[in-house]
Amino acid sequence: MERLLHDTVSLNNLSEEIALRWPEQVRVNPDLQNGLCRMECEASVLTEVCSWLFSKMGYSFASLIVEEEPAEFPLRYIFYGDLENGQVHILHRILKTKATVPSISHFVHATDWHEREAEDLFGLVFEDHPRLGDFVLHEEWPEGVNPMRIDFDASKAYVHREVNPYWRPVRIVQAPGAFMMPIGPIYSDFAESAHFLLETVGEDVIRTIPRFFYKYRGVEKIAEGRTIDQVLLLAERFSGTSAFAHSLAFCQAVEEISRVEVPPRAKALRIFLAELERLRHHVASIASICGSTALAVATSQAIILEEELLRLCCALTGHRYLFGLNTPGGVVMDFTNETLRKLVDTAQGLFKKLEELKEMLRFSSSFLDRLEEVGTVSSESAVSYGLVGPVARASGINRDLRRVLPYSGYEKVEFIIPCEQEGDGYARLRILFSEAEQSENIIRQVASSLPSGPILSPPFAVPRGAALGWAEAPKGATFHWVRTAEDGRVVRYRVTPPSFTNWHGFHLAAEDFAFQDFPIIMATFGLSNAESDR
Amino acid sequence: MMETGNFLVLFLSLCGIGVILSALFRDRKNPLILAWVASLAAIVILAASGKVLLTGRLWQTELWTLPLLGTLVLKMDRLSAFFIFVTGLVFLPVSVFSAGYMPKYLGRYNLRTFSVFYHLLFGSTVLVLASGDILSFLMAWEAMSIFCYLLVNFEHEREETTRSGFLMLAMSEAGTLMAALAFLILAKASGTIDFASLKSASTDLGTMARWWVFLLAFFGFGVKAALVPGNTWLPRAHPVATGNVSALLSGIILNLGIYGIVRVNADLLPVSQIGPGLIVLVVGSVSALVGILYATTENDMKKMLAHSSIENMGIVTAGLGAGFVFMASDHPVLAGIAFIAAFYHLMNHSLYKSLLFLGAGAIDSSVGSRDMDRFGGLIKQMPWTAFFFLAGTLSIAALPPFNGFVSEWLTLQTMLQSAALSSAGIKIVFALCGAGLALTAALAVTCFVKAFSMSFLGMTRSSGARKAKEISRSMLIPMAILAISCLLLGVLPTYIIPVLDQTVSPPAQESVVDELVPSFFTLGKGDAKFGEAFVSEFHDLGAQTGKDFLPGRGLVVLHRGSEKNPVIFAMSSSYSLVMLLLLLGGTFVAVRMLTKERKVTRQPAWDGGVRRLLPEMVYTATAFSNPVRVVFNAIFRPSTVEDTKETVAKHFRTAIKNGRKEVHIVDRTIFHPVVEFMQSTSMFLGKMHSGSVNVYTAYVIVSLIAVLVVQLLF
Amino acid sequence: MSKWVLKGLQTGIKTTSYPGREELASGVSPGLPGGKKESGDEALPVISRCPTRALSQAGQQIRVDYRRCIHCFRCLRGVQGAVDWNSGYEWAASMITSDETTPKFGKVFGRSLHILFVDGGACGACLSELEQINKPFYNIHRLGFFITPTPRDSDVLLVAGPVTDHMRLPLQKAFASMPTPKRVLAVGACALSGGIFGPSFASEAGVSKSIPADIGVPGCPPPPLAIIHGLLLAVSRKPSASLTFSGSVDGRKNS
User: How many structural domains compose chain A?
Assistant: First the structure.
């Protein structure tokens, strides 16, 4: 990924600034060519540096990547800013004998869940983190067993487990007569498996306490030792509704490691298919919001559009959810320009119907009543929790990876990033409609100006290395970190999906609300447990 | 069959024997003595009052004649006999219950004194009801108040008990004082103290005096009957009293207040204007609503039952008020129906409330707590208690075929009869009060669904509930007796109503039996009152069904309208019981037959797939009634005591603490302002106490001069 | 409010006529690989490309184990001797291996069936397809099938996902809470064989490891019409597909 020279001016300043503030403890290694600043940080100033980057310099937190080497755990904190600020990778090594890290979640709250996950899966202790334990592994896993460790055999079930009879859920509300209403893991008609405890004194729900990872399939662990192609399949399928975006992020990581140039036609096709997926995904989210408010006709209208888009995708590519199209180096299938233009016309027709639906919803006051001022997430909370995607953009955070970390040729495409300020359910719905409009716009642009040429780079071998790949999935920013060995097999695969980041902030919207609004708040967030739990 | 007077003598001697034996025997044997002697006494008094009720022969005897004051008279007319009968009905099972219940206080408190006071209370209660002149009434009344206080104060080492008992005594005395004043005004008019002459002389009283007598008697006795605004003592007294004393308190003592109201306002000085009647009606309805609102949101089981007693007394009073208004508006038949409704409700309340209080006492002794948030799932450990408690719950929630349904139906029907009145203003008042009573009935169902389900159904919520065991048979049998009586009184209204009618006819001056339970159902032809056409309409509806094999008449009716256009309201709890049994039995048999070949498996309740449903995840009693608290927020006005949110490291919310405090609306609007006013006045007047002797001397001189001046001038 | 009614009427009927008539619209199904008559040498590269070992050699044919097919298209695209590709969507088949006869659903269930769905760790694609069956294009209500959220009222249990470790107990509880007669439909490759996720420390190799599964619907994800075919098969309104789910799915597939 190349950067233009003027983008790196601020990044340069950043390196100098850091070298000035913490000359001893931080070793800076800027990589301005790639818009990246690597640094290695000591434990004593880790919190300071991270909070300075986050609060003062306005960087967003992307991911915490924990790896295991024979004698130590290298931890990578990934931050990114706007176009001119690039990415910052902070490396911090912990010796295995010590295995404690200062927790930065007090200052960069977005790292809260990353640290809890690392504690559960690796056994690292984050000092001063007030709530470690019982996150990924539920109460029947004994302490001290950490699946992501190298010595853990992931191929078969771990048998030495006992349910802790004294386990109790965390309670936050202390009021006479307060109790926790349990929801799930099996609850609504087609809901994903997740457990919520709604703390209430009978009328309003005061607080939501979620328990996730019922769908934990250990994707990061089972990827270890597999070939790139097999891990590509994992990347595609751990979240089927955003399959193309995740496979795109993975492929870009592998292409970065292998220093492979993707042909321009392939890049354009990738944009086309990614936006097609985004359009379909947003229509499905809109349908789900209408369904949660029980506005049956609107739901049916949106679902009809979704099914027509699915059939469109299948007719074009052979699979309704665009599986099996991406591969490191390009795409697998080519389409004639004629085919693409016809598809664009059909999509345009579908989009017009979506616009009609939007207009009708705008004037349905009973529908808007259930969305306006319901499930509000304030801007400050959104920033401190590091929310991404349409949820964040509805609360005033205007960051979109297609703009701030452009990939796959997005810098050549003209489009707007819609942003709202209210942060309530209606704002999120409006964002979905606006982004769908932008996606349709991009599809039209790309189809009319598709460059010719090959769709796949010449075959290449994947060397040893590590890189970060990213994409703006329909639900938000996703980051895939891949590390390969000499034989091209994957040694470490770390995925930070947007649902993981946003489920963390879900309880902000689900506080002090009437119980009937719970499904509506969930629908407006539009998150996926499969994506979050991996 | 002995004479009534002999029965009474036997009763009083049994009470005396009870006192002596209780004083003699040791603590261990005392509950048994109490049970035996008191039950025997109860049976005797049931016989005595039953005789008067059924035969109608009044009984009277003169005791000693005191100089300057008059003759002390004991009298039992139908009104007294009815109340005495209800007293006996409640005392009997409660005494039997005490045998198994009191031993839990062994070693901690003196059971001898309990038994002594118990017998004395029994005796004085009957004497109150059987007295025929002011002096004996007031003496027995005071004795009853004091023994009641002593019994409520039984666990005197707890601070809460002494405070509540004292409040009860103080308010009771205040009410007694007012009632005594009322009696004195009456006595002044007639010059004698016995009720008969009071009654005849009362017709000469002027309007002003009538109003004073009414207000003093109504509000004075209203304190005893726990009507708003005199209800503050009841919710405090019940939680501190023992289980059997609570049953007596609600089942008998509250009735005495109603007895006083009826005696003065319907017998001695019948209400002749509409004003007093309306006041009674409104106070009753307000009591009912306030009582049930606080009952629904209360978690302490005995406090909840106390508030519910306030509600029921309110309903009785509302019925009485309606009756007074009808009487003053020259509708004696409707007045009679109203009084019958009120008395029926009174009797029902005594029965089902004692049943519920005995149940609460049983749970308390088994689980060790009164807080419904700590119960749950008791039906598995205490199935019989649950069963009888359920009967009580169904009765109080006014569901057929139990007794609550009959009296609630009659009361609400009475409210509807206000269409017969002429004045629009009165009709509006009736409509509002009727609506209030209907709301009360709905809230009562909510309240008791919560009471039963939170205590007996669902998951056990505390270790005490897990360890609870079924109570002994000596405690179950009285509950069974009460439950069966509730059912009988619900199923046989057509036999009860004629008896009540005879009780009620003196005040109402007309017999209404034919209105409610007409005889033509079984006769098949018309009579003087109901024409042939009218009767045949009824027969077309099927009123003659089963007249050959169904015993007695099953329908209770109310009819209005003209001969040609009758409007009939009818209810039959008797037939509904029959239908209920047929349908239940039939369904049971059908299900058994249809599922003979199917496999039956048992699984725990579906909980969404959680590993284990914990007590934290189950609905609490507070949460169940919270919507009521929120909807009626203007009445409850809770004040926030604590509202803190604890956070660690700026982002991790670790605790949200909410605490709320509520002050009862009557306290808030009436008592606290009055008390504050009196305190501030006293503070102001306290400035008179300067401490200097000179000032005090000046006060003496000034008052001396003032007296002389007054004496000279007037 | 009337504008919504008018809109609905304007849109008309979108529902498919399946099972009355075959659904011929394009894009309703991704199709499945068919076997192929191929002699030994040319078949091997194709067979070895399959990441889940769904293809195997059977004499002169390439045989497909549909439980393992994850629709990756490796056997179809960019390779010599690609497999045949079958369109269509009637893919449901019985999974009962032994001879024991379970009590059949009576005729009454054919027109009134209640379905419970349990998510055993499925990715969003199977869920999205399942949501479609209750919606205008496919509308199972016209067939008398209804979705219910509680096992106490349900006759058929649909399971998608490899059954993750944490969902094993809830799934077993749900199955136990269902009254007889009951059927289990395993929807998707993950539910049939664990897909690419199982077996591992966190996932099983399909539903049958936790509860007995009766009917399987292969595909990744199976299109809504295939799922409907599965439901119709459960109430014997449609015959089984001629796919067989033979042999065990054990053994680590992904080396």
Answer: 3
The token pair that represents A373 in the structure block: 């001022």
Q: Which residue is closest to B599 within chain C, CA to CA?
A: C180
Which residues lie across from B341 on neighbouring strands?
Answer: none
Q: HSE on the CB side for A424, CA within 13 Å?
A: 11
Cα distance between residue A92 and residue A73, in whole Å: 8
In sign, the C-alpha dihedral spanning B451, B457, B462, B466 is positive
Are C180 and B599 a contacting pair at CB < 8 A?
A: yes
Which of A193, A211, A229 corresponds to the end of one domain?
Answer: A211
* H or E element in which residue C109 lies: helix C107-111
Nearest Cα residue to C239 out of C223, C215, C218: C215
DSSP string, A371-384: HTTSS---HHHHHH
pLDDT > 70 in chain B, percent: 91
| Closest-CA residue to B656 (of B644, B641, B640) | B644
Partner-chain contact B624 A186, CB within 8 Å:
no
Greatest Cα pair distance, chain A, in angstroms, is 71
Which chains are within 8 Å of C by 3+ CB pairs? A, B
Residue A87 lies in a domain: yes
- In chain C the first and final C-alpha atoms are separated, in Å, by 58
pLDDT digits (tens, 9 = 90+) for C83-123: 788 888 888 888 776 655 555 676 777 788 999 999 999 98
Q: CATH number of the domain at C93-234, out of 3.40.50.12280, 3.40.50.300, 1.10.3720.10, 1.20.1260.10?
A: 3.40.50.12280
A83 located within any domain: yes
Element housing A205 (H / E):
strand A204-211
Q: What band does A176 get if pLDDT is binned at 50, 70 and 90? A: confident
Q: Which of C72, C131, C162 sits opposite A324 (nearest CB)?
A: C72
Rounded to the nearest 10 degrees, the angle between the axes of helix B254-262 and helix B111-130 is 10
Question: Is the residue at A147 inside a domain?
Answer: no
Pair (A184, A295) in one structural domain: no
Question: How far is Cα A528 from Cα A533, in angstroms, rounded to an integer?
Answer: 9
pLDDT digits (tens, 9 = 90+) for B607-666: 888 888 888 888 888 888 888 988 998 888 888 887 888 887 777 888 888 888 888 888
Contact C169 B601 (CB under 8 A): no
Interface contact C28-A304, CB threshold 8 A: no
Give the separation between CA B573 and CA B552, rounded to whole angstroms. 13
Asked if A120 and A227 sit in the same domain, the reply is no
Test mutation, A108, A114, A166, A172, chain B, max B CBs within 10 A: A172
DSSP state of B657: E
> Beta-carbon neighbour count of residue A488 at 10 Å?
17
- A359, A358, A434: which is closest to A394 by C-alpha? A434
Q: Rounded CA gap, C54 and C73, in Å?
A: 12
For residues B61 and A6, which has the higher predicted lDDT (pLDDT)? B61
The helix (H) or strand (E) run that includes residue A61 is strand A60-66
Q: In sequence order, what DSSP letters do the residues of A138-152 get, joined into one string?
A: -TTSPTT--TTSTTS
C-alpha radius of gyration, chain B, whole number? 28
Nearest one of C218, C220, C85, C116 to C229, comparing CA atoms: C218
Closest CB from A154, A241, A304 relative to C136: A304
| Spatial separation of the C-alpha atoms in residues A476 and A387, rounded to whole Å | 9
Model pTM score: 0.85
Burial of residue A8 (number of CB atoms within 10 Å: 0-12, 13-18, 19+): buried
* Contacts of B among chains (3+ CB pairs under 8 A): A, C
- State pLDDT tens for residues B180-197: 999 888 888 777 788 887
Report domain extents, chain C: 32-86, 93-234
